[in-house]
Amino acid sequence: MITYAAITVVIAVPVVRAGRLRRNLLAVATALIFLTAAVGHGMHAYLAVTELNRSWVWALACWNLVTCVAGLYYWTVRRRSRSPAGAIYPDPQRERLQDEADAHRATLEAVVEHTDDAIIGTDLDGILTAWNRGAERIFGWAAAEVLGRHARVLTDDAGAVEQREMMRRIRGGERNVSYETRRFRKDGTPVEASFSVALIRDRFGQPIGFSAVVRDVTAIKEAAERQRAVEERTHQAQRMESLGKLAGGVAHDFNNILAIIVNYTDFAAEAATGNDALAADLKHVRSAADRAINLTRQLLTFTRGDTIQPQDVDLNAGLAEVHAMLGRTIGEHINLIMVPSPAPVLVHADPGQLQQVLLNLAINARDAMPDGGTLVLEANTAALDGGELDMQPPLPAGTYARLLVSDTGEGMTADVAAHIFEPFYTTKPRGQGTGLGLSTVYGIVAEAGGSINVYSEPGVGTTFRIYLPMAVATGAGVPAVLRQDDPPSGDGRTVLVVEDEPALARVVTRILVNGGYHVLTATGGPQALTLFRQYGCDLLLTDVIMPEMSGRRLAELVHDAAPALPVLYMSGYSNGLLGTTHVLDGDIAFIEKPFTAHDLLHKVAEVMPNLIREYG
């Protein structure tokens, strides 16, 4: 009895002192066994030296039952104990490791529960068994709503087939299965998600389910798409720059040739009066030359190689001018509607190029409605927030002037619409389109600091929205159309013509002589300086690009002697020699090749100071 009691004390005291009475249940159960044994032996000893007492026999029997219960409790605790067999006190090192494992498990559970990624578990049939807060945030379902439901709740029919295929591959032994796909939130909105799926096994190595780590990559994919669009626009700009260099290389000579063809054709047409057959032939030549002029101008425009003269333009006035022009030519099968802005809308742009934009879009719309339809030209203003994805090129937030050209034609597929601004891309039959019309539109709008938005639907129609920066009102609007009256006579005033192309120099000289001017002709800068020093002049009319000396340099040297002498530049491609960019400096007089006699004589009259009063 004393021994059992001593053992009880030896076991219990260290446990109590260590404060582990509730944690070390095995030691408590062992001490309890020895305590009941000590009491039982004491009772047996007492009965052995006293007379048999019936009540004590029952008390001993009851105590033996207590001892039995204590033994059962001991074995229950023994089976659940992680201590090695026979060890009442756990190994401190083992217990520390176990505590660390418990802490690690608790930390891991907290990380899983609070991570932004979705941690999802399913059984082998795809029934959802685990669902953390990240899953709730990404998919909008609370854990109580989805646990016990099939994972098909997150997808559509195509996604369900994909789920089954992934499960089959993973059960077949494939590891590290990662893929991106589309799933759906509780409210039906799509989620671009990245999945990493693995097989879950029990401690015997048997598969019991699947675990998936899911990340919402919607924002990442949208950012990647925006970056792709930026890169595509950059590549397009690079292609256009390369083409621009090629175009600029031939534009100067080609426009000189066209100027010769156009003017000699006009000379011949004047001489052919009364000869209808010859006049008809010359008319065809002139028409072909006009087509070549337009093609060259478009090529230079979309490659930004053309020289432009921007000014304040009222979109309403420009719209009215194009509407009047189209009303005479577009055809009776097209219902042409103009919707001007309630108030003037001013932009700073080249009026001729603005007209070219509207005409190109209107002609495309007409071609898209061979059986008739409605074409709407509209001007207004619009506010942009700067986040629009379908602007080419993108624009910062602000209020812009807007032109709309809408038709009810055949429309375009998304694939066609993605390529329409590429040079030489056309869906028209061979020989009916150059593929430069919309490229030209893009180049003009981008150069003006604007952007284009295109919406098209097959069988419904197409709408082009052009956004341009607003200009501060200065009282100026669209300039008057080209004068149709006869230019004033030169009255013998002297014009020094400098042109390195002899045939074109003869053309210009002939036009000016017929207009009443006295002409001095030079084929280059040095010869022009000599003639100027010998005879002087009232106007210097010079080409821009010449072999020995540019027209701009020639004008500088002439102005050293005569600072007030007016200068009129002519060129089909100035290559930036008239300003810091190809945008013409405001104080420079310029006429673009190829020009007609009518154009040249009016321009000379505008520039020459002593003809201002008469001309005005």
Structure notes:
By secondary structure, this protein is α/β, with parallel strands linked by helices. The chain is 48% helix and 19% strand. The protein contains 18 helices and 17 strands. Strands 2-1-5-4-3 form a 5-stranded antiparallel sheet, with helices on both faces. Strands 7-9-10-12-11 form a 5-stranded mixed sheet. A 5-stranded parallel sheet has the order 14-13-15-16-17, with helices on both faces. Strand 11 and strand 12 form a beta hairpin. Helix 9 crosses helix 13 and helix 11 packs antiparallel against helix 13. It is rod-shaped and about 165 Å long. The C terminus is likely disordered.
Q: Helix and strand layout, with pairings?
A:
Layout: H1 2-17, H2 25-49, H3 54-80, H4 92-114, E1 118-123, E2 128-131, H5 133-139, H6 143-146, H7 157-171, E3 177-184, E4 190-201, E5 207-216, H8 218-271, H9 276-302, E6 311-314, H10 315-329, E7 334-339, E8 346-349, H11 351-367, E9 373-384, E10 398-407, H12 414-417, H13 437-447, E11 451-457, E12 461-469, E13 494-498, H14 502-514, E14 518-522, H15 525-535, E15 539-543, H16 551-561, E16 567-571, E17 589-592, H17 597-607, H18 612-615
Poorly predicted runs are: 474-483, 612-616
Sequence of strands across the biggest β-sheet? 2-1-5-4-3
Largest sheet descriptor: 5 strands, antiparallel
Estimate what percentage of residues fall within beta strands: 15-25%
| Distance linking N and C termini | 137 Å
Mean residue pLDDT: 79
Number of helices: 18
Structural class category: alpha/beta
Strands, total number: 17
Helix content: 40-55%
